Amino acid sequence: MPPVFSHGDLRLYLLNLLDESPRHGYDLMQALSDRTGGTYTPSAGTIYPRLSKLEEEGLVTKTVDGRKTVYAITEAGRAEVAARAHELEGIEAGLADSVRLIADEVRGSVREAMKSLRADLAASAQSERDNADRDRTGARASASASGGDEARQSSREQMRRAEAIVAEFRATVRADLRTHLAHGGQLAADVVDDLSRALDEALASLTRTLR
């Protein structure tokens, strides 16, 4: 998954946010999440070391307000933001591209998982129909109790197989989403909507197949 900020860009972007207004650390993390549509939320371990470095460079100051530490830009910091305005424009453009790429990757992962689920469910349903056809043929040839037992056993095996397929799909999607979040991303509402619609389509297809 591509990084949202290139090397050094986050430092300048933090200065830009502080140029808008003084903020404490959580405000900065939330602002970054808001500016990226929820696809990037930095950790405290990412933000605070950079703020400390900016303070050492004389570009920001900090004051304690109750239990919060508020950071404010200095005149030297404003001068740097003004001097690098063209770089900020490039960061904004690159940020929009990165957000689109991350969202596309999550959607692609969901689509591939849904495609695999539909194929597995269709194969399971077809296998169930084939078994049912064989059971009916066997029933016409012989009314023995053993034939009925075999049919029931086959159905139970196919049920276990279908449950395993669904469980594997669920585990795959959860793993992909957790990996996305672990890389600093968040789930946009439209991505979850896509997943919901795809699941509804898969369920409707399975219902039609089993009728």
Query: How far is the N terminus from the C terminus?
Result: 42 Å
Shape: rod-shaped
Helix content: over 70%
Quickly count the domains: 2
Number of helices: 7
**Rg calculated over all Cα atoms:** 28 Å
Q: How many strands, what sense, and barrel or not for the largest sheet?
A: 3 strands, antiparallel
Strand count: 3
Structural class of the helices, strands and pairings?
mainly alpha
Mean pLDDT: 79
List the uncertain runs.
none
Element-by-element helix/strand order = HEHHEEHHHH
Assess the beta-strand content as a share of residues.
5-15%
Strand order of the largest sheet: 1-3-2
Describe this structure in words.
The chain has 211 residues and is mainly alpha-helical. It folds into two domains: 9-83, Winged helix-like DNA-binding domain superfamily/Winged helix DNA-binding domain (Arc Repressor Mutant, subunit A, Orthogonal Bundle); 103-210. 77% of the residues lie in helices and 7% in strands. The protein contains seven helices and three strands. It has helices spanning 9-20, 25-35, 44-56, 75-83, 85-141, 145-182, 189-210, and strands spanning 23-24, 60-65, 68-73. The chain has a three-stranded antiparallel β-sheet. Strand 2 (60-65) and strand 3 (68-73) form a beta hairpin. Helix 5 runs antiparallel to helix 6 and helix 5 (85-141) runs parallel beside helix 7. The mean pLDDT is 79. Residues 122-159 are annotated as: Disordered. This is Transcriptional regulator YqjI. Pfam families: PadR. Residues 127-138, 149-159 have a biased composition (Basic and acidic residues).
